[in-house]
Amino acid sequence: MKMVTAVIRPEMFDVVRAALEVEGINGMTVSEVMGRGAQKGIALRFRGKTMPVELIPKVKIEMVVQDADVEKVIRTVRANGRTGKPGDGRIFVLPVESICRVRTDLDDPADP
Amino acid sequence: MIDTGATAFILICTAMVMLMTPGVGLFYGGLVRRKNFISMLALAFIAFALVSIQWVVFGYSLAFGTDINGLIGGLEYAFLEGVGMEGDGIPDLLFMAFQMVFAGLTLAIVTSGVAERIKISSFVVFGLLWTTLVYDPLAHWAWGGGWAAQFGALDFAGGTVVHISSGFSALALALVIGKRLGFGSHGMEPNNIPMVLLGGALLWFGWFGFNAGSALTADGLAANAFVATNIAAAAGALAWLCAAWIRGRPGSVGIISGAIAGLVAITPAAGFVTPMAAIPIGAAAGLVCYGALLFRVHRGLDESLDAWAIHGMGGIFGALATGVFAAAAIGGVDGLLYGNPGQFLIQLADVAVVVAYSFGATYVIAKIIDAVMGLRVTEEEEYVGLDIAQHGESVRV
């Protein structure tokens, strides 16, 4: 199992969520976060002066999926979260050791 | 001769109407995305401050100075020359201030059309030109002895001057400045609905001063306006609630929008109709404005916060309803329902002229400002949000 974390533009979230649902990816944890990439945010220019906006609002989606689904999730987020401009975000894939359900006493590694 | 009771009442009404301007700011601020919340509030304060100075320098005189051909007032009251502590019932200074808070509020409503994308510098220039070239003449026509007043058009507290003008001006401005980035594809849900409701509550509260105070004295007519105002607001809220419920869920933003629709529609009528007439006026206004909002969304127009649907269309409906429901027993003039169809036709003509003038003049002013200095922020600034881009501040650090 893998944890796929996608940090994307907030305005693209609804489209990405709907596309993931179509692919059968329903479980997710979503947070509103602030962040920046290699450009260190955005520099706004006023009459020759620059004003840095160092942290930009983003949405972080965390999904735990079977190894076989990782590529599909990445492809879906890329296809639906992209504007082509800097700031479209990142996708991180991490290994997951185990999953424990809170509702029951079972550990359920086969069903994230 | 100064009447101290009337003076005390209008002083309080003036302060209540002032509170409507930040009320509009909170209402609009809650409706936009969080990155533009401060911007909407700030635009309301800028509108009020700008118009306050314009009004005492020459705006009041243009609206209420000696009539020139029915179109505009003279400049004899410029810099408040001759506007003093004496007056007819209330001090002239107080009448000037009461009218000033109306003018400031009207410009704040117009910000609906440019939400989340206007440059402050351009808004300041626009506001000064708009209030001088659109608001001041309209105030003169209706209340300053201009052609509409001579013609017999009824507008108790500003259905044409405040609401039709702000609504259609917001629409013109929205057409010139263009849609927000991502309009129609990105989610643009309200960021803070309790704040919308708080702003709406301040509007409802201030509207008592707005309409009752327009009697310009503390008497039975003021009481009639006060009661009719509340009835229309309540009827509008319930009508919108039911309409939205039939189509899905009774959202709280719709309930307060319906109340404002009722308040807008009763504004021109409050001193001319019976309190019971406020029920059909308010309820129908809720439905008319809800329909206008659906039409606006269907057409893909980004008049972002619905000043056109609620103030513009509600104002038209209210001005026409005044011609229908006016009762001589209340304000001295009968309407269509009491056997005077002529009044309805007068209202219709007044509405047509005000719609055409406010939309046309605002369109031209906006086009000129757009060509000279640009109305809109850059794409990057719009993306980051005007709170940071224009003010260097944000709701959440």
Structure description:
- The complex is a heterodimer of chains A (112) and B (397).
- By secondary structure, chain A is α+β, with helices and mostly antiparallel strands.
- Chain A has one domain (2-95): 2-Layer Sandwich (Alpha-Beta Plaits).
- In chain A, 20% of the residues lie in helices and 37% in strands.
- In chain A, a hairpin with a 2-residue loop joins strand 3 (42-46) and strand 4 (49-53).
- In chain A, helix 1 (13-22) packs antiparallel against helix 2.
- The radius of gyration of chain A is 17 Å and the shape is elongated.
- The N and C termini of chain A lie close together (8 Å).
- Chain B has 397 residues and is mainly α.
- Helix content of chain B is 69%, strand content 1%.
- Chain B has 15 helices and two strands.
- Chain B has helices at 4-31, 37-64, 92-110, 120-143, 147-151, 159-177, 193-212, 220-247, 252-266, 278-298, 307-325, 328-331, 341-372, 379-384, 386-391, and strands spanning 67-68, 72-73.
- Chain B has a two-stranded antiparallel sheet with strand order 1-2.
- In chain B, strand 1 (67-68) and strand 2 (72-73) form a beta hairpin.
- In chain B, helix 2 crosses helix 3 (92-110), helix 4 packs antiparallel against helix 13 (341-372) and helix 11 packs antiparallel against helix 13.
- Chain B starts with a helix and ends in a 6-residue tail after the last helix.
- Classes of the chains: A alpha+beta (112), B mainly alpha (397).
- The interface between A and B is medium-sized, with 11 and 13 residues.
